Amino acid sequence: MFLLDSSAWLAHLLGETGAEEVSALFDNPRHAVYISALSIPEVYSRLKSLGQEAHWPEVWQNYHALFTKILPADEKIAHQTVALKSVVPNRLLTIDGLIAATAIVHNLTLVHRDPHFGNIPFNLLPQMRLPSK
After folding, report:
1. In CATH, what class is 2-129?
2. Which tens digit of pLDDT belongs to each residue from 73-116?
3. 18 and which of 11, 40, 59, 80 could share a cystine (Cβ 3.0–4.6 Å)?
């Protein structure tokens, strides 16, 4: 079971490096692919920065059908984020911490290409690191 970070979702959406790996997850019926609700505005914001926000309704409709479930951020995830921030030696952005904590709380492997997650020990957070851009 996997949690796609916004970076992995965007790689797939924009056909960037790592898109093939994400496609393989979607194509395998044995794999459940989740996202954090926090990724929704992140992906929309990226589309907007590219001048493509008019495509958002279609993008959301297509991807919503692919995701197994959209996971909310709740108090348990917030406390797990605090715990992560206390053990990660380098700076961890709050949004990244919340998404990583979502994966931890739900026992999911985080799929990403974000270097910030590299600061989190693998024993705390199973990760599938996609190739960089």
Report:
1. alpha beta
2. 999 999 999 999 998 877 889 999 999 999 999 999 999 999 88
3. 11
